[in-house]
Amino acid sequence: MPKCSLKTRILQLRVITCMFSILFLKAFIHFFVTYGIYNYPHLPADVLETQLYKRTAPSLVLHKSKPDCKYDEILKSTSSVQNWEVPKKFDDFSAKGLVNGTYVPEHCNPLFSVAIIVAYRNRQSQLDVFLPYMHNFLRRQNIHYRLYLVEQQDEKTFNKGVLLNVGARAALRDRFPCLVLQDVDLLPLDAGNLYACAAEPRHLSASIDKFRFVLPYDYLVGGVLAIKADHFLAVNGFSNRFEGWGGEDDDFSWRLTNHKLDIVRFPRQLSRYTMLRHRQEARNSQRRRIMRENRQRGAADGLSSLPRVAVSLAANRLFTLVAVRL
Ligand code: NGS
């Protein structure tokens, strides 16, 4: 066997070290470039309240004897739940003050009416955590709200866009000025994350534990989004064409941009969420094609072309059920 000279050995060692250094550097750069946005631009923390859209539903009865509700302390609150502290069971949950998923503060007149719309199917274990958690969270916020659970009750492929459009239609009929579109697997952790619309569409779930609390990309509006009812109408709601997982929210984001609407957010320390674990749904292999086609057609498909679906409304103490059969 030929013996390696010292020079060759050193050279070999250098090549290996060099290769490892390059690989390490590549991984390091990749981590920061593709990992998401840590310090995303947000509304100024000290003037959050001035940026919010103060409007209540015309049906809400206001009492002259009561003062207006206050929001400054809620917005300044630093109280936060750690994601591992989120209860998995609510044995002591009280539905006090709730009728059909609606809540009105008792001691003051709210300045915000918010319809919370949740597209849903077959995730009972998440719903069992979501409903009590959300009502406990929201009842502390001094807002008037109603929770619409829009359930797809057929065996066809899940169509979140259609469900959100149907839910929005119900909320618009109830003349809610602000809609919050919320995933059932997301729970807000910060008490200061006030469920209210801003002048521009507001992405609430900017900092999710699943993404290690960074925003994956700046045009993301999936998860939890608060949007004024008139903006939802102006962009023609969601596309009805996305079946299965993915794409409908990015398509909606494009609709917002196309209407020159900015996406605004609260600071990170008010925008944290925990995601309840679940199996990844089957991805819609057609989603990118549909997104391209929708852009060419200019959002003609949406709320205005909602397919004929069977819808029935039912009351439950914790939510208004909007049952949908496609
Ligand atoms: C993008 C999807 C969005 C989705 C987002 C986050 O890739 O619909 O991931 O998903 N866009 C497309 O597929 C085109 S998450 O990991 O939160 O389930 O909302």
Structure description:
By secondary structure, this protein is α/β, with parallel strands linked by helices. The protein folds into 2 domains: 1-34; 40-277 and 286-325, Spore Coat Polysaccharide Biosynthesis Protein SpsA, Chain A (Alpha-Beta Complex), CATH 3.90.550.10. 28% of the residues lie in helices and 16% in strands. It contains 7 helices and 11 strands. It has helices spanning 6-34, 72-76, 124-138, 160-173, 229-234, 248-258, 287-297, and strands spanning 102-103, 113-120, 144-152, 178-182, 186-188, 202-203, 207-208, 224-228, 272-275, 310-315, 320-325. Strands 1, 2, 3, 4, 6, 8, 10 and 11 form an 8-stranded mixed β-sheet that branches. Strands 5-9-7 form a 3-stranded mixed β-sheet. Strand 2, helix 3 (124-138) and strand 3 (144-152) form a beta-alpha-beta unit. It is globular, with a radius of gyration of 23 Å. The model has no long low-confidence stretch (mean pLDDT 93). 2-acetamido-2-deoxy-6-O-sulfo-beta-D-glucopyranose binds at residues 222, 246-247, 249-250, 287.
Corresponding CATH superfamily of the largest domain: Spore Coat Polysaccharide Biosynthesis Protein SpsA, Chain A
Radius of gyration: 23 Å
Total domain units: 2
Tally of DSSP β-strands? 11
Distance between the termini: 75 Å
**From the helix content, strand content and strand pairing, which structural class follows?**
alpha/beta
User: What is the percent of helical residues?
Assistant: 25-40%
CATH topology heading of the largest domain: Spore Coat Polysaccharide Biosynthesis Protein SpsA, Chain A
Q: For the residues shown, what is the average pLDDT?
A: 93
CATH domain class of the largest domain: Alpha Beta
Q: Given the C-alpha coordinates, what overall shape results?
A: globular
Counted by DSSP, the helix tally is 7
Bound molecules: 2-acetamido-2-deoxy-6-O-sulfo-beta-D-glucopyranose
Q: Any idea what the CATH architecture of the largest domain is?
A: Alpha-Beta Complex
Low-confidence stretches: none
The largest pleated sheet is described as: 8 strands, mixed
Order of helices and strands: HHEEHEHEEEEEHHEHEE
Strand % is 15-25%
